[in-house]
């Protein structure tokens, strides 16, 4: 279960806890939690490190709700850092104030201060998650968010599992053992909370049936390898169907090493063990003295399997794809050079940054984007830039100088937007898991090379495209998404790799109010964190 770095063993594994599949149903409930954000010592890379956690847990508490419930989370910040909590994948309809994106929708909750997030979890079922959205605190401030159907587990559109097990990749854990019984079915709710890589996930001697991604059901897809990028969630069924003689089976999560940009990350290999216990008939016990079966893993440098895994997903309950496109964006996501002194110097007086359409995103410094927009004074934001609908002509990927700015795309309510996300179609390429706050979207197509509007439109899946909140832009290629702006507010679009978003691979959609009260963003909550205090402007992720 370990990868060796500089002679020291460390564990970059998953946390799991068994959840009972109890019946749901009944009227909507108010689910209330208190998050105490503080610091604790963690032995990491053979050294004691002070880390920020929630409720003294790593990962933080798993939240369980039923579709239609209202969730109230009191955040008490006893850490030395400003913090926000983002409810990753929750649509926050008419409630952008609770999205939790630092300096985008709110100022951070300062040390020794509190803030209460209040929102409804409506129209969504499956696995989502929550995490800090300030600097790199996400590495230890995160947890699962499980949304069960209102009618109970018997209404799952797949065989009812005997047990549910959330698995959060990106947490230190040593010698984890998952005990299973022969013949039983397990629903693994997998979250990739890691800051950097995609992961291949396999269990020796077992296959998976993928049933949902990003809290949206997909047509059952059988595979022996799960591919999950940073920020994504995947729900899979696995049947404990190994030989009755018993045995033990490694569960392996292997980090995929992309080629760039900026710096390379170490290869993370994590291992746990699936072990059989006796079932009701006394059969199936593992032999703890025997060898542990090891799965054959893909090459950690090869993203081919990732491309096909994501391309094979289709919606189980397809809804009509909007056909009349009002706004089209072609967004190039790559790297560029940023002058340190504001003028083109001779090397090395520049730094490498990430960018979208040749603008490297920077945070507002005096107030959150949402607050400025709500006060009808968004122009007060220093370095505000209109996000261009296309990259500059004759752009050269990963080369040339760029500029910084708070880049926003303003769009009317109920607008159909199609976005082509183009990664570097060059040898020095890399994949980018892009996350849109406040909306789900259709993933219509993906491909390799440069996007060709005349040719590639014929590859669109307009029948049963998957619906997601994450879109993986493949290495050397592109991805097309489409969505309708039915949620007024300010919504962040960014790469979910920590190094990419912190260096500028982001922009924001400003969605205007609709014509009625029911399509207008309400006022902020009374305890909305203020930026009046200069200390309330702590970075973001």
From TrEMBL:
Cofactor(s) for this UniProt protein: Cu cation
GO cellular component: extracellular region
UniProt domain Plastocyanin-like: residue ranges: 38-151, 171-254, 400-514
GO terms assigned for molecular function: copper ion binding; oxidoreductase activity
CDD domains for this protein: CuRO_1_LCC_plant
Keyword terms, alphabetized: Copper, Metal-binding, Oxidoreductase, Repeat, Secreted, Signal
Stored PROSITE patterns: MULTICOPPER_OXIDASE1, MULTICOPPER_OXIDASE2
Record's signal peptide: 1-20
Xref: InterPro entries: Cu-oxidase-like_N, Cu-oxidase_2nd, Cu-oxidase_C, Cu-oxidase_fam, Cu_oxidase_CS, Cu_oxidase_Cu_BS, Cupredoxin, CuRO_1_LCC
Subcellular localization(s) per the UniProt record: Secreted
The family this protein is said to belong to: Belongs to the multicopper oxidase family.
PANTHER family: LACCASE (PTHR11709:SF356), MULTI-COPPER OXIDASE (PTHR11709)
Record-given protein name: Laccase
């Amino acid at each position: 279960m370990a990868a060796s770095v500089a002679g020291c063993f460390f564990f970059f594994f998953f946390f799991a806890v068994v959840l009972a599949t109890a019946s749901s149903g009944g009227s909507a409930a108010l689910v209330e939690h208190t998050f105490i954000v503080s610091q604790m010592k963690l032995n990491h890379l053979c050294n004691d490190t002070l880390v920020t956690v929630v409720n003294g847990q790593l990962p933080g508490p798993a939240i369980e709700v039923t579709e239609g419930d209202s969730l109230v989370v009191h955040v008490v910040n006893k850490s030395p850092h400003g913090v926000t909590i983002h409810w990753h994948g929750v649509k926050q309809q008419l409630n952008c104030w609770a999205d939790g994106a630092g300096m985008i929708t709110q100022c951070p909750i300062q040390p020794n201060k509190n803030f209460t997030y209040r929102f409804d979890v409506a129209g969504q079922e499956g696995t989502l998650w929550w995490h800090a959205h300030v600097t790199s605190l996400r590495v230890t401030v995160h947890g699962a968010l499980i949304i069960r159907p209102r009618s109970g587990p018997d209404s799952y559109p797949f065989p009812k599992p005997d047990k549910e097990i959330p698995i959060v990749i990106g947490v230190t854990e040593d010698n984890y053992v998952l005990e299973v019984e022969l013949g039983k079915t397990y629903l693994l709710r997998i979250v990739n909370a890691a800051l950097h890589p995609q992961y291949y996930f396999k269990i020796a001697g077992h296959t998976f049936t993928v049933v949902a991604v990003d809290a949206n059901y997909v047509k059952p897809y059988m595979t022996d390898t799960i591919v999950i990028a940073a920020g994504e969630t995947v729900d899979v069924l696995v049947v404990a169907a190994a030989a009755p003689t018993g045995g033990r089976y490694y569960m392996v999560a292997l980090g995929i090493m992309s080629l760039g940009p900026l710096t390379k990350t170490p290869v993370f290999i994590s291992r746990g063990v699936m072990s059989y216990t006796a079932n009701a008939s006394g059969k199936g016990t593992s032999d703890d003295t025997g060898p542990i079966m090891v799965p054959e893993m893909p090459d950690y440098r090869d993203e081919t399997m990732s491309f096909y895994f994501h391309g094979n997903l289709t919606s189980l309950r397809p809804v009509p794809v909007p056909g009349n496109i009002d706004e089209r964006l072609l967004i190039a996501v790559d790297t560029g050079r940023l002058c340190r002194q504001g003028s083109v110097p001779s090397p090395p007086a520049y730094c490498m940054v990430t960018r979208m359409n040749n603008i490297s995103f920077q945070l507002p410094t005096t107030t959150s984007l949402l607050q400025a927009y709500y006060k009808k004074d968004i122009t007060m934001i220093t370095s505000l830039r209109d996000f261009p609908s296309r990259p500059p002509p004759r752009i050269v990927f990963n080369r040339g100088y760029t500029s910084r700015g708070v880049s926003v795309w303003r769009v009317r309510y109920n607008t159909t937007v199609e976005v082509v996300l183009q990664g570097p179609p060059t040898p020095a390429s890399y994949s980018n898991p892009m996350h849109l706050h406040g909306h789900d979207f259709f993933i219509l197509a993906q491909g390799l090379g440069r996007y060709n509007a005349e040719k590639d439109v014929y590859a669109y899946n307009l029948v049963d495209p998957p619906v997601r909140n994450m879109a993986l832009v493949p290495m050397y290629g592109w991805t097309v998404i489409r969505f309708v702006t039915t949620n007024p507010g300010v919504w962040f679009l960014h790469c979910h790799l920590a190094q990419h978003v912190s260096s500028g691979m982001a922009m924001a959609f400003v969605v205007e109010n609709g014509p009625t009260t029911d399509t207008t963003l309400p006022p902020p909550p009374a305890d909305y964190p203020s930026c009046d205090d200069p200390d309330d402007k702590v970075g973001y992720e």
